[in-house]
Amino acid sequence: MITAGEVLYRLDGNVNIVWHRPYIESYRMTTDTLSTKDKILQAAAELTKEVGPVNLSLDAVARRAGLSKGGLLYTFPTKAKLLEALVEQHVSEFDESLRKEEAARNHGPNSVVLACIAVYRAEFLCNEPEPSGILAAIANDPGFLEPIRRYNKQLLQRMRENATDPMLAMMVFLTVEGLRSLKLFEMNIVSMDEQIAAIDRLKNLIDPTDLETGDVSITV
Question: Given a cut of 80, is residue 167 above it in pLDDT?
Fold first, then answer.
């Protein structure tokens, strides 16, 4: 996920924040071409947060990335291609985090839905805005949602197939995706504590012995 920082969650329930997640080791590239691509994506993500998705321009992205516009166009010939790459990176980074959490649970029953809860919970604790590149893509062309739509369809299927209670797995999916949508469009009507309490309640319904996250107290 394209954010200023990222939460790394540990087995003891504590969290660490590491800045610039898109450039952690698993995303460091060795060739000049891929390094340039990473710089461009970082610049584009930063600029959409600063000036808004509608005002994102390739000239500004090139300046922020320290490249000529020709250098940017060599990697991303159009703004549409750049936005498409932002969406693809968002999906790829989420999937990597998810699969790490699944592996931590030995890919056992309910490991997919519990992994989803762990990743979403970490995002809420980090309290970073949803990826601005996604909003930029939506503003430019709603068709850019197709990779996310396709991924979410596959994810929900995996959650159901791996769950001991497929209906509960779907409830988890709908809850967290609803919360993320509210956050993406800046329509937060519940506090962060309330959001975390809601997903923790769902986690406890599935497996109260899962990697402990700790209770969150809220006042309604």
Answer: yes
